[in-house]
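ping. complex inputs:
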Amino acid sequence: MIKEMVCIICPMSCRMSVEMDKKKVISVSHNGCVRGVKYANEEMTNPTRMVTSTVVLKNAALTRLPVMTQAPVPKRKVADVMKQINKVKVKAPVKMYDVIIENVARTGVNVVASRSMDAIK
Amino acid sequence: MRKVDCVIVGGGSAGMSCAIAIARFGIRDILIIEKEKELGGILNQCIHHGFGLHIYKKECTGPEYAQLLIESLKKYHIDVKLDTTVINISEGKKVMYVNRYEGVVEVQAKAIVMASGCMEKNRGMISIPGDRCANVLTAGTAQRYLNIDGYMCGKRVFILGSGDIGLIMARRMVLEGAQVLGVAEIMPYSNGLSRNIVQCLEDFNIPLYLKTTVTRIIGRPKLERIELSSVDDNQKPIQGSEWYLDVDCLLLSIGLLPDISLLNKLNVERDSQTKSVSVNEAYEMSLPGFFACGNVLQVHDLVDDVCLEAQACGMAVARYLNEGFHEEEGIPVYAGENVTHVVPQHLRKENMEDDCRFSFRVKKPMRDCILRIRSGDHILREVKKRVMLPAEMEKINLEKRMLTDAQSLIFEVKEDA
Amino acid sequence: MEDIIIIGGGIIGSLIAYNCSKYHCNVLLLEKENDIANKSTMANSAIIHAGYDPDDYSLKAEMNIRGARKYPSLCRELKVDFKQIGSLVVAVNEDEVHTLERLHKQAEKRGIRTQMINRDEILVLEENISDDVIKALYCKQTGIVTPWKVAIAAMETAMSNQCKCELNQEVKAITVEKDGFIVKTQDHTYHAKIVINCAGIYADKINEMVTHKKDFKILPRKGEYYVLSKNASNFVKHVIYPAPTKKGKGVLVTPTIHGNILLGPTASEQIDREDNSTSERGLTFVREKVEKIVKNVPYDEIIHSFSGLRAPCADNDFIIGESSVKNFINVAAIDSPGLASAPAIAEMVVNDYVLKRLNLSKRMFFAHRVKNVVINECSTDEKERYIAHNPKYGRIICRCEQVSEGEIIDCIRRKCGARSVVAVKKRVRPGMGKCQGGFCEPLVVKILAKELGISPAEVDYNEKGSPILVCESKGVRHEKG
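pong. complex structure:
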């Protein structure tokens, strides 16, 4: 089976054709460079995404703390990651990169604070 | 009256980067004036990641990027006024600011850097007809409501304009539980990065309607529906092509405008294309000692580019303060065929360092093209490019030695025959 | 039992309330919107025409001439701006020159000083006049105001003098009793000896509730406008009218009190009385027409467009007087020059009807409203003093218009205070600048929520039931501001 996809690595935005056999990439064509092959392989076999969001924050000047996954998580797990993020409440002070959720949605990846936030007074 | 070497208006990525660059030359008598209660500017609400590949060699989120900048700034012990608004700037370089704890204060600066960023284009500017209801917001305002204040401004959302802020907000709203019904783009191509098209729209099956715009807003007192129309090649809506969507929120991501209102009373040269001031190679305006960098000078796509420009500006400010510039009439820099604008708009060859970095944008997407910089018929530099897009600011350096005889510079892009 | 119920809080109702509050009587004003001056008063050309234009022997002519003369002193008393900027009615052909000459004579007869001037003289006054303009009728007396600020200041003053005002009360039924009227709104029932109908585009409906007859019919006419930013403030310095036709004053150009420029209005009849929408057709019409009288229009500086409904009737004159039912007074069909006429209309209603029916004595009247602090208009010393007194005047919320937190809080807390984002914008201008609230709106929402003790998700944008925010993220139930 041939799948069409746009490469997102550089502004060329090559429209690549990826030949697949079940879940394996057999060949990549119409790619401008080798980076396209790597991207096609990752995106077709194990697509991953960074997740960024906010969590409820108490005891600070602001009411939300921005958070991020420390590494990309499998794309199919994004919804589960969000579910867990939405339940968390954090109390200031928080330091940037403090772990907010460990091993989120059993991905092996932590959700960490995107910034520091002081406690009020 | 307090005297300072340099006042920087705005404590976002441009203002902080500029301050650090000046401070590295030993000038510490700098005052940054920031309107918000913390430094970082608009980065603080851009909680998505993808910033900083160039400077930090990793992909940061906006708040993270801001914090890294704030931490570097701290090392230089620079005076920062937060929650403080500049209300007047005089030709004599007096800056008047106001805040809660000092009242109205005027400072005398030797140099002033405008680093006050840009604003979003809004419904009023493009006169979308229809009811005057709530729930038609710019994407950045919605982003602030959601990411800083923690409030959603809609559950059934449509987005006009495929700029990156709009795309990013599409994903944000979906992840927060809203339904995003689509994105309309008046041009035949998207104005966002492919990565955002894939990861913000395609991942969530959000349709992108090209050559389409919103022609009517319907609903009282709340937004109920929007009318969409296809447009012709001149971006005029085609009668009879109307269709409707029931939505409760319309976000606008239709472009950004430099915010130079503080300079309105000053007689400085403007660039009608960038809608900002014109500057020379030192990022100095037509008024000596007035500088500009970042999104107030031209709208950038990447924070890294803002910071690099601000650093270059900062280095020039330091030079201005330490040694001064040569008195010199600059040569003009023009945007030629297929180019919308070039910054800087003037070049003073004597004052140039070894080279000068130019930024510009093309008018339309082009493949296999040649960028040519010429002075009259004399071609100074030619670069082949496989692709150039209006959505991506182009940067190119010119070396001083190439420019000896140049009386003007023209930047043009031609498709390779 | 109220002595007087005024239905409608536009400029007419507010000024009648203001005039009534000078006497010992119970006055209640009912307004169906969530703010005073929310409809026609909010969306018109904001011009105090001198009064040479309306037909001879009409109420319009009489009220306009008298009303215009009252504005300078009224505005001084209410502490709102009035600027006598003068006007030019321009002619592009000989027919129009004749119209101007007729107006010139009419003005003379009415004691209004006007002057016919030629192209060279026009160019001295206005450089962006169209190349086709050959003559103009110059009138120094023409002025401008911010209509809703006049209404709000009048209402506030009335309330300081014991007048009551209830917002969000739509009159549903009125019954005539022996000793007066029972007025029912969706929530309450009120009694009054006199009812004054100032319901604008609904005046015919209110009349019908009382007289049970279709004595007159309001034919709503929409006017669409563009607003240019303050960057364009030098575009014109006077009100510039085309030569008037039977249809009205036409598409004009005028500066506003705050240095913006208005282009408009259109004039299209419509049935839907709640329709304040703009249209592609209307806005295009404005552009086409405006270019007949001016050139170099800085369209780049368009920051806003809006429309408002005027409330004329078929007879093309005001309806002011007692209806067939005793003590029910109509003040209806107040379209242009309604704003200019308003102070005279209010005076006439009180002198000729209220005082004739009720035996009222003058009260100790607090005439001089305390002007609100406007930081942007203060000298540096004044700013210093205000901020020392209240540091919130030092926190700028709207950078385009330089409006402070203190001013916003003031306009919410004052009598006749703001209850929505647009109500705040009307009073102290955050969001009136180029960014149209992009930066300051979230801050205004927060301040309103805190001051009113509600959640930000309950803060309305303009009308009742128009919140900007739908809910808190993360499923958090709202906490009071």
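Chain B has three domains: 1-119+256-325, 122-254, 329-417.
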